[in-house]
Amino acid sequence: MHNIITLDQLDTLAAGGEIDHCWNVLTPEYFGGELIPGSRWVALDQIGRHVSDREIRKSARIVVYCSGPACPNSKDAGRKLVTLGFTNVSVFEGGLEAWKADGRGVEVLPQSAAA
User: Fold this and answer.
1) In terms of Cα–Cα distance, which of 115, 76, 109, 105 is closest to 93?
2) Is 106's pLDDT higher than 90?
3) Domain coordinates of the chain in residue numbers?
4) What is the DSSP letter of 18?
5) Which 3 state secondary structure label does DSSP give 107?
6) According to the CATH classification, is domain 3-114 in 3.40.250.10?
7) Which of 32-36, 52-56, 83-87 is predicted least confidently?
């Protein structure tokens, strides 16, 4: 089962260098190009292909997030990763909504990369 984490827990993990991969898992129709700094966009429907195309250890700490608590993508991504055999998966349920509500900045991908 994946682990649900809060903004404070995300900060602690990031400060300790404990996050191997942090992914915005919004699907292309909802992805607006915004990322939590240091994260990457890996759309929910690409997770299986993304992890099989790369050598990602099954014990890697992976944090996934989406737009916010009302969006199911992060929980779906967490379940998908666990099904694929990953053992250290965390879902930042607050997502971009909580991140920005706390006054934090985002990285914005160029339009061509977000399309």
Assistant:
1) 76
2) yes
3) 3-114
4) -
5) strand
6) yes
7) 52-56
- Which residues, in sequence order, are CB contacts of 24 under 8 Å at separation 6+? 31, 34, 35, 36, 39, 40, 41, 42, 64, 65, 66, 96
For the chain, the average pLDDT equals 93
Tell me the two tokens of residue 87: 């053992």
The reported pTM is: 0.93
Give the residues across from 103 on adjacent strands.
Answer: none
* 58, burial (CB in 10 Å: exposed 0-12, middle 13-18, buried 19+): exposed
- How far is 80 from 110, CA to CA, in rounded Å? 28
Give Cα 6 distance to the centre of its chain: 13
- Higher confidence at residue 113 or residue 82? 82
In a 10 Å sphere around its CB, with 0-12 CB exposed, 13-18 middle and 19+ buried, how is residue 37 labelled? exposed
Distance in angstroms (rounded) separating the CA atoms of residues 97 and 50 = 25
Residue 113: per-residue pLDDT? 60
* Averaged pLDDT for residues 51-67: 90
